Fold this sequence. Notes:
- By secondary structure, the protein is an alpha+beta fold.
- The protein has a single domain, classed as Translation Initiation Factor IF3.
- It has two helices and four strands.
- It has helices spanning 11-24, 40-49, and strands spanning 2-5, 30-35, 54-61, 66-72.
- Strand 1 (2-5), helix 1 (11-24) and strand 2 form a beta-alpha-beta unit.
- The longest helix has 14 residues, at 11-24.
- The two termini are 20 Å apart.
- The mean pLDDT is 95.
Amino acid sequence: MNQIDARTLPPRERHPAIFNAFDRLQPGESFELINDHPPTPLYYQFLHERAGLFEWDNLEQGPELWRVRITRKGGN
Length: 76
């Protein structure tokens, strides 16, 4: 599984980089997002901009590290 470590990206580039990675996924593929804070705003942005196209699985929820698996749903 591919990983995106958002901690290594400049803040203004994080969401665009994550969405670009998502848009390159084939149905059923996923990547793991690693972050140093809850990715709640990103989740709501996905709900708004990619509604019905993704699955969001929390793998680790702090207090120092957050890990999420983001999967492109099949057939979309």
